[in-house]
Specification:
alpha+beta, Immunoglobulin-like, 5-stranded mixed beta sheet, 15 helices, disordered N terminus, transmembrane helix, cell membrane, inflammatory response
């Protein structure tokens, strides 16, 4: 997106003038006036005929001052001409004359005379412009309301834009009224000398447009104004006539300056640096800053411009953590760009890095806000890594020397400098004794030696190998234990899948229904499932009693991850409703082998307290019971219709170890075939009286 243009008028003198010119779009002349006034610009130019002076009949509007301003009249984004905007200041001149007889005899004023005194003033202001070879005259019609008509007082101004003119031309401007009541105002002005440089930004490009007459020759140079040090040339060209130079926005830096001069002997050179406070230029300077290695142990910060920076050495561990500054003992040092610096190291090491803190100079946020901000950026290079190899897992020991030759050693770690032989739970503390022996035996490399202390780099390879041997042994032992656990779990899952327990509870309505339940239990036993049903446990049921037998079977089934299946029939529904209405009903009233009636005292609390899901499953036979007949309390668990929902029923019984759907469908077909004879016999048996309808519910 285009940004406002900045025109820099570079006068070829020792004191260049920098102008910021406003842009006016379109070829039409316009006029505007200050608040309270109304003005109109006549179409086309008029004849420049001032005429003779005439006396004012009363208060009239006259021009009292002229001011000019240079602007740009642009027809396209890059096609602009210099233009002169004229500001005409207006005031009321003259007074109304009072009749002598009124003052002498006190005669009342005639209303016909009072009316024009309270009317607004109107004037035709002529503006004449001459700049060789151009001459123009325009007519402005200005009207002032009666409230602003005060003799001798300024009423405002009218602005005309604009008269086009050539660079370096001398312009003359006159202003008067028609008719003319006073001597015309005049103004002579010399437009800026050549050249005019236009710096504009469009997207990622920066355009330098130099407006030079075709017969003039100038030199243009772009250079980096480095402080300290001489200017560093970057680009130079001799120009004839107007030229446009395109730069990429990444080429901008704060010290990039432009110098223009006339190609003649002893000409004065004019320079300007327009990007000193450009945020993009400062960001580019940060990106351009580079650290260079200078053998044997020196380095240099290369940058096109000077910038405030501080540098120090730091120790970079191979684990990728932050580089730890070596302050103390080595202090921070101010950096001068493009100047070699050397730290007093005895030996080089790949883990020694240079850390730079770059500062951005304060920038004004906005013209109306006198607020400045500092920004900073960290730059880090491990300069000797290329020549000395990759980072090493060495331990850096910092030796501190005090009075009376007192010495202490600590190891530089991410948590800080850990004293050797301390009780801290760090690697350096655990290896404090061996590291101290390595320093005394000369196995550590001395990197720096000064009055305040020294730096030692101790290899950790032998300790790492020993540690990794223990780690490998621990990993192998852990892998063996995990493998054994997986085998045990796999065998347990297989065993559970082959023999998941299922406890069937039903109401012994009649012999036909008991045969149907026995057929279902036998079919489930072939899946395989470990099925428990009172039909197969008559001896234990008689010996223990229904309630004790049910408690034992239920506890064992649930402990093994099994499921309790409630087979609903008209008799079972009636028993459930009796228990829901009167919980004190005696379980023995329904026969010695009726485990369903005995189990209700334990089943109902599980459903009432929300413990049933995942432990119980309901089922009923299609032609014996309708879906709505199952009490609402028991619908908190899945309830299946048999044999229509046999695949879903079998999948729920087998749980996580259920086979694929196609395998379930095959098993459901087997169970359905096994149930069909018992179903047919049950419904052909006389006196069953069990079908879907009201008669099934009358038993309650």
């Amino acid at each position: 997106m285009p940004v406002p243009w900045f025109f820099l008028s570079l006068a070829l003198g020792r004191n260049p003038v920098v102008l910021s010119l406003e842009r006016v779009v379109g070829p039409q002349d316009t006029a505007r006036c200050s608040p309270g006034l109304s003005c109109h610009l006549w179409d086309g130019d008029v004849l420049c005929l001032p005429g003779s002076l005439v006396s004012a009949p009363g208060p009239v509007l006259v021009p009292t001052g002229l001011q000019t301003e240079l602007v740009l009249r642009c027809y396209k984004d890059t096609d602009c001409d210099l233009c002169v905007r004229v500001d005409i200041h207006l005031a009321v001149h003259g007074y109304w004359e009072e009749p002598e007889d009124e003052e002498e005899f006190g005669i009342a004023e005639d209303p016909a005379i009072e009316e024009p005194r309270n009317a607004s003033l109107q004037a035709h202001v002529v503006l004449s412009f001459q700049a060789y070879p151009t001459a123009r005259c325009v007519l402005l019609e200005v009207q002032v309301p009666a409230a602003l008509v005060q003799p001798g007082q300024s009423v405002g101004s009218v602005v005309f834009e604009c008269f086009e003119a050539a660079l370096g031309a001398e312009v003359r401007i006159w202003s008067y009224t028609q008719p003319r009541y006073q001597k015309e105002l005049n103004l002579t002005q010399q437009l800026p000398a050549l050249p005019v440089l236009n710096v504009s930004a469009h997207g990622n490009d920066v355009h330098l447009v130099v407006d030079i007459p075709e017969d003039q020759r100038f030199g243009l140079s772009l250079y980096w104004n480095q402080v300290p040090g001489p200017a560093k040339p970057w680009w130079h060209r001799n120009l004839t006539g107007p030229q446009t130079i395109t730069l990429n926005h990444t080429d901008l830096v704060p010290c990039l300056c432009i110098q223009v001069w006339r190609l003649e002997p002893d000409s004065v050179r004019t320079s300007i640096c327009p990007f000193r406070e450009d945020p993009r230029a400062h960001r580019n300077l940060w990106r351009a800053a580079q650290l260079q290695l200078l053998p044997p142990r020196a380095w240099r910060l290369d940058a096109p411009c000077s910038l405030p920076a501080e540098a120090t050495l730091c120790w970079q561990a191979p684990d990728g953590g932050p580089c730890q500054p070596l302050v103390p003992p080595l202090p921070r040092e101010n950096v001068t760009v493009n100047k070699a610096l050397e730290f007093p190291l005895l030996k080089g090491h790949p883990n020694i890095c240079v850390q730079l803190l770059l500062f951005l100079v304060p920038l004004t946020l906005a013209p109306s806000e006198q607020v400045s901000t500092w920004e900073k950026q960290e730059l880090q290079e491990c300069l000797w890594a290329d020549s000395l190899g990759p980072l090493k897992d060495d331990m850096l020991l910092v030796e501190t020397r005090g009075p009376q030759d007192n010495r202490s050693l600590c190891a530089l770690e991410p948590s800080g400098c850990t004293p050797l032989l301390s009780r801290a739970s760090t690697r350096a503390a655990r290896l404090g004794g061996p590291l101290l022996q390595d320093v005394q035996s000369g196995q550590c490399l001395q990197l720096w030696d000064g009055d305040l202390g020294a730096l030692w780099a101790c290899p950790m390879e032998k300790y790492i190998h020993r540690r990794w041997a223990l780690v490998w042994m621990a990993c192998l032992l852990l892998a063996a234990m995990l493998f054994l656990l997986l085998l045990l779990k796999k065998n347990h899952v297989k065993a559970a899948a082959r023999s998941r327990a299922a406890l069937l509870l039903y109401s012994a309505d009649d012999a036909g229904f008991e045969r149907l339940v026995g057929a279902l239990a036998s079919a489930l036993f072939q899946l395989p499932l470990r099925v428990a049903v009172d039909l197969w446990s008559r001896r234990e049921l008689s010996a223990q009693g229904p309630l004790a037998w049910f408690h034992a079977q239920r506890r064992q089934t649930l402990q093994e991850g099994g499921v309790v299946v409630l087979l609903f029939s008209p008799g079972a529904v009636a028993l459930c409703r009796e228990w829901l209405q009167d919980a004190t009903s005696a379980p023995g009233a329904h026969g010695p082998h009726d485990a369903f009636a005995a189990s209700l005292s334990c089943l109902l609390p599980d459903f009432l307290q929300g413990r049933a899901p995942g432990r119980y499953v309901g089922a009923y036979f299609d032609r014996l019971l309708s879906p709505d007949a199952v009490p609402a309390l028991f619908r908190s668990v899945p309830v299946f219709s048999l044999p229509s929902q046999l695949p879903e029923f079998l999948g729920t019984l087998q749980g996580p170890a259920a086979p694929h759907p196609w395998r379930l469908a095959e098993r459901a077909e087997q169970v359905s075939r096994a149930l069909q004879p018992a179903l047919d016999s049950c419904f052909r048996a006389p006196g069953t009286g069990r079908g879907m309808g009201p008669e099934a519910e009358d038993r309650t």
